[in-house]
């Protein structure tokens, strides 16, 4: 398959370091609040990538960190934030410990991932549990001359790494001292970044180190934890587009200088999700979590299908219309699934086969082309239309194969199908009703409908006297 690599700015054939195995690292959440639908989008991309690699027979080791030290992000700097540790700020506001805050939102994050059918990473390393590994890496960087200490603070010296900027294009000659860039008096160059900071007295989360009692810088956790669980070189590193600079640029600098090896072969970045064409923000009232989506009557799978209906490298514009469309599409997929699960081919069906191979081929071609999920979704919808048509015409000779194919497509995209096997007794009642309707015995047919209703099912009439039974 081909993947667009942010590092080389082109689509490349994916080749893992070790045949049959893939090591993938995803920058996880900073656990001080509920994740929003933009974050969900950023986690859906590696999930589909992993599912598709697994389908192709790869063994994927996926690591997603939990940032339970509340570093600043570029967003905070852009928005002129105060620079406080977000987890500590929340802890003080809620009169809880930072650990209580972090564990609460970590659990909430995992619950959202579960509802969204995002496969759990094999391991979710927490930053607070890996400070010794970070200290070791910082020591290595100092020993090799890439980092320096001053007044208990340690910085990475960007001028020592000539390749700085190779991921984002922000090479040192292009970087000017931005007005928003916070200067630290102990830095040699404005673009040097912190590896370790001495903690002020009131700081709650702090650790002993060779330089000061302090806390790790913003980027070092991902370098230290990815190496710990996946080795010096990763196959794939993923994140949202805002991670490219400075976070991932800094990860490359630290890791490559510490290990002398290439850090990651492929860099996969999901573009941002906008809401009604604008950046999500709490003050604009367009900031949605999964709970908000559910309150409006949509399911996590509706949201998942809406997300996958846009390519991960296109800026997605979330609107209520887009999720409404996804809900309708999901309903038609599930309706067909139910139809096929409960379909008993008749004599005439035996003469026709639904050729699934051409759909499988198109589906794979879509995903092979840099994970083109919108195209893959449209292949499923075509498959469903074709299947409905053949079933209407009593030309469905291979329902078991069709069912299995649909299940495979759904599994790769992580869409949970809702299938109900209808009890035989109910099918008999429905057949009796069909007979009654054909004979225009409407009273009898209504009675049978009520009986089916009492058993907890609804019957929907389709073209040509066909019908669909659904659980209420
Ligand atoms: P954070 O907890 O802020 O570090 O964000 C977690 C992940 O979500 C990161 O990979 C971000 O790049 C990503 N992310 C944040 N906002 C959005 C958004 N609006 N759309 C897509 N991804 C986002
Ligand atoms: Zn990271």
Poorly predicted runs of 5 or more residues: 73-82
The tally of helices reads 15
How are the strands ordered across the major sheet?
4-3-9-10
The tally of domains stands at 3
Mean pLDDT figure: 92
CATH architecture of the largest domain: 3-Layer(aba) Sandwich
Number of strands: 14
- Which quaternary structure do these chains form? single chain
Q: Rounded to an integer, what's the Rg over CA atoms?
A: 27 Å
How much β-strand is present in the residues?
5-15%
Largest sheet: number of strands, sense, barrel closure: 4 strands, parallel
Q: Helix fraction?
A: 40-55%
- What small molecules does this complex bind? adenosine monophosphate, zinc ion
CATH topology descriptor of the largest domain:
Rossmann fold
Shape: elongated
CATH class of the largest domain: Alpha Beta
Class derived from helix and strand content: alpha/beta
Order of helices and strands: EEEHEHHHHEEEEHEHEEHHEHHHHHHEE
What is the first-to-last residue Cα distance? 42 Å
Helix and strand topology:
Layout: E1 2-5, E2 10-13, E3 21-26, H1 37-55, E4 59-64, H2 74-78, H3 86-94, H4 98-115, H5 131-143, E5 147-150, E6 153-156, E7 193-198, E8 214-216, H6 220-230, E9 234-240, H7 244-259, E10 264-270, E11 273-275, H8 290-295, H9 300-308, E12 316-318, H10 320-341, H11 357-368, H12 373-392, H13 399-413, H14 424-438, H15 442-454, E13 457-461, E14 467-471
Parallel strand pairs: 3-4, 3-9, 9-10, 11-12
Antiparallel strand pairs: 1-2, 5-6, 6-7, 7-8, 13-14
Helix pairs in contact: 3-4, 5-6, 5-7, 6-7, 9-10, 10-12, 11-12, 12-13, 14-15
Bound molecules: adenosine monophosphate and zinc ion (ZN).
Residues 27, 222, 247 line the site of zinc ion.
């Amino acid at each position: 398959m081909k993947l667009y690599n942010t590092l080389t700015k082109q689509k490349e054939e994916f080749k893992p370091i070790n045949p049959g195995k893939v090591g993938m690292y995803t920058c996880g959440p900073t656990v001080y609040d509920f994740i929003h639908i933009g974050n969900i989008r950023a986690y859906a991309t590696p999930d589909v990538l992993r599912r598709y690699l697994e389908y192709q027979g790869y063994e994927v080791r996926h690591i997603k960190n939990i940032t339970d030290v509340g570093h600043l992000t570029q967003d905070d700097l852009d928005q002129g934030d105060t620079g406080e540790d977000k987890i500590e700020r929340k802890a003080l506001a809620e009169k809880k410990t930072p650990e209580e805050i972090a564990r609460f939102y970590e659990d909430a994050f995992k619950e959202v991932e579960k509802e969204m059918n995002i496969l759990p990473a094999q391991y979710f390393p927490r930053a607070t549990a890996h400070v010794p590994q970070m200290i070791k890496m910082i020591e290595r960087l100092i020993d090799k001359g890439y980092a320096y200490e001053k007044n208990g603070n340690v910085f990475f010296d960007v001028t020592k790494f000539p390749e700085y900027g190779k991921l984002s294009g922000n090479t040192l000659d292009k970087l000017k001292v931005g007005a928003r860039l916070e200067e630290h008096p102990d830095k040699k160059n404005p673009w040097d970044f912190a590896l370790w900071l001495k903690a002020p007295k009131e700081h709650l989360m702090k650790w002993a180190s060779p330089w000061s009692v302090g806390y790790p810088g913003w980027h070092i956790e991902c370098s230290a934890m990815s190496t710990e669980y996946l080795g010096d070189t990763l196959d794939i590193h993923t994140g949202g587009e805002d991670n490219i600079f400075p976070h991932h640029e800094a990860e490359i600098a630290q890791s490559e200088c510490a290990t002398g090896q290439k850090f990651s072969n492929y860099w996969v970045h999901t573009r941002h999700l906008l809401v009604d064409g604008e950046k999500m923000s709490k003050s604009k009232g367009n900031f949605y979590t999964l709970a908000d989506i559910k309150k409006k009557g949509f399911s996590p799978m509706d949201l998942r299908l809406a997300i996958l209906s846009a390519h991960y490298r296109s800026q997605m514009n979330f609107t209520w219309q887009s999720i409404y469309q996804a809900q309708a599409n999901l309903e038609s997929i599930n309706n067909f699934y139910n139809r096929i699960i409960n379909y008993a081919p008749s004599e005439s069906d035996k003469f026709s086969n639904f050729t699934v191979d051409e759909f499988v081929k198109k589906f794979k071609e879509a995903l092979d082309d840099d994970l083109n999920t919108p195209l893959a979704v449209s292949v499923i919808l075509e498959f469903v239309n074709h299947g409905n048509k053949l079933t209407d015409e009593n030309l469905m000779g291979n329902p078991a194969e069709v069912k299995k194919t649909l299940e495979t497509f759904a599994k790769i995209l992580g869409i949970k199908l809702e299938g109900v096997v209808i009890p035989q007794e109910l099918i008999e009642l429905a057949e009796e009703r069909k007979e009654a309707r054909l004979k225009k015995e409407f009273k009898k047919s209504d009675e049978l409908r009520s009986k089916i209703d009492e058993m907890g099912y609804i019957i929907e009439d389709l073209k040509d006297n066909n019908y669909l039974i659904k659980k209420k």
